[in-house]
Amino acid sequence: xxxxxxxxxxxxxxxxxxxxxxxxxxxxxxxxxxxxxxxxxxxxxxxxxxxxxxxxxxxxxxxxxxxxxxxxxxxxxxxxxxxxxxxxxxxxxxxxxxxxxxxxxxxxxxxxxxxxxxxxxxxxxxxxxxxxxxxxxxxxxxxxxxxxxxxxxxxxxxxxxxxxxxxxxxxxxxxxxxxxxxxxxxxxxxxxxxxxxxxxxxxxxxxxxxxxxxxxxxxxxxxxxxxxxxxxxxxxxxxxxxxxxxxxxxxxxxxxxxxxxxxxxxxxxxxxxxxxxxxxxxxxxxxxxxxxxxxxxxxxxxxxxxxxxxxxxxxxxxxxxxxxx
Length: 325
Prior knowledge:
The chain is mainly α. The protein has helices spanning about 1-30, 35-55, 65-85, 105-115, 120-145, 150-170, 175-195, 215-225, 235-245, 245-260, 260-280, 290-295, 300-310, 315-320.
């Protein structure tokens, strides 16, 4: 019993440290989205490791406690994915599609509480999903070159160890081995927090680095002169690879010159080209959707939304206005 208490104490301090870090990013640091996302990530780790401690100290754990642990486990991967995107500046903020990342945590959480899903099966699925996110983030970490790269790789390495410890718990045949798994996860958490405290970039609201005028000139040339914006489904990562520059530098160059993010600039240039062609053709029967596809839009809905945002009118209304109708 003494061993269990020592392991619980060791792991419990790590849980408390995670909660403290999360609270700092939520309430003390006046933090931006990227820091708050990291705070939620630490909170998810705390929920999962905390569940392990309660489980081997109090085996008759309620379904609610088990569901809380699953919520933490299944949320680590999605939060890691979002944080990686924010730190590499391949995304500007939360997207509507991020809602889908919350489906498994929410469904599993509710399913365990109401007895619709066996807890062991849910934890197997949650661990597998966590691994998929880890592999995906590792893959992109090698191609990225952002200002947080060193810290991000420490984050990924620590979470990989945590995943291994949690996976070991699922196959452990004794409660003592289960407790050791929680201790290993706690140890990786200690290392992660220590590395975070040594990395000031994690706490900075904005990173300062110079954008060379040459890079801005190349961005403008590719977008406006070479009309690269007409490539269908063009995204910031592809554009940065074309320029052979890190994504975060290209993102900053675009923002500095156009005062807009990359998707907004691309859509604006596409709409300007559509307007130019409509003005040349001066024909109310010209298929606007056909022009939209030619300039890079891949769906009518995306085109209509972008056109309305840029001109405050629909494509057909704008086309008719050219004829004075």
